[in-house]
Amino acid sequence: MTSTPATSRAPEDTGMAHLGQIIAVASGKGGVGKSTLSTNLALALAAQGAAVGLVDADLYGPSVPGMLGIKTGKNPSMSPSGKVMPAQAHGIKVISMGMLTDDDKPAVLRGPMVSKYLRMFILEVDWGKLDYLILDLPPGTGDTQLTLAQSFPLTGAVIVSTPQDVSLKIARRGIRMMEQVKVPILGIVENMSGFTCPSCGEVTHIFHQGGGEKIAASLGVPFLGAVPLDPAIVDCGDDGLPLVIAHPDTPAAQAYRDIAATLLRRVRAKPGLPTPFGWQWADDASTPMPAPVAGHAGGAAEVPVAMHRRDGRTLVVRWQDGHDQAIDVRDLRLACRCAACVDEMSRRAVLVPASVPLNITPTRIWSIGNYAIGASFSDGHQSGIYTFGHLRSMKSAEVEDV
Question: Is 214 annotated as a binding residue?
């Protein structure tokens, strides 16, 4: 699996700041309650006053519309700007393949069409101004996960598991996949961690207990919380009225709210540059905001915490380990490794340095996922991609301050 695409598409470069923090909810296997968690988590965030959107990214098995009581099979309306209008349910905005097809009509899609629909669900929906966009991913580590991780600047991922050993082992694979594509792990949620008696409300641990917390500790990732198994969760999902709305006083509903609160603290403390951003170089508009946590000794060498334009010809990057790096923008252009500048088979440079003007400047710099920046230049080059590791390896002069 490769984590660096050969080219970058301009429509994904800018115009995403209105989406807020993009959080993926993932699982290594099906049947662990991932969509139920995504739905109740989105509602719990909205109950705290946040503007929340929910993308049902499981194109082959969409379940979110049913959980929220959204009618399926109707063509969504379009906004005056030509974007798809999302459905609204219980205070959140929702888009799903289930809204576009009937319940008994399968989505028969090849890989390229999956990517097309995912991009449409995120970029071509009239979300308005959001604080959080929750992505309910399908189970596994396939096309959907890779497309989203490489195409969009995800704030991080929440991994859902159940207490059984087999589920925890598969969850470990999901975590490793996210780490390979540089998506931060915001934490693990242990679902179905115990049975809530419908009569007395007592929680009995009918499966193993504490497995999610143990695997989180072994992998060095946060444990966000455990959700007990409650029969009302199933009933509420079937009725289109999620648990946090229908039964807010149950232990499971409280667990969802506690997980949402813990997740918010994790998001606010996440290292690295806030994304997405689309930075216009000429007038310095939309300069990336610095990370909440400044660079420090012992920090990561390939996590940027600030970027700015020192002058018209110098990009300055501060890294989490405290290193300040100044990069001449012509050197940045010459170091491009896209398919137009480097032969994909031999990895030999095909860009002729003499063809790059001495006075070349970037026109725009944007975030790509959580692992790179993209750049377009005044010579017309549009597909420059620079992983953070590649940036850090470039020669630079020390600077006094960022």
Answer: no
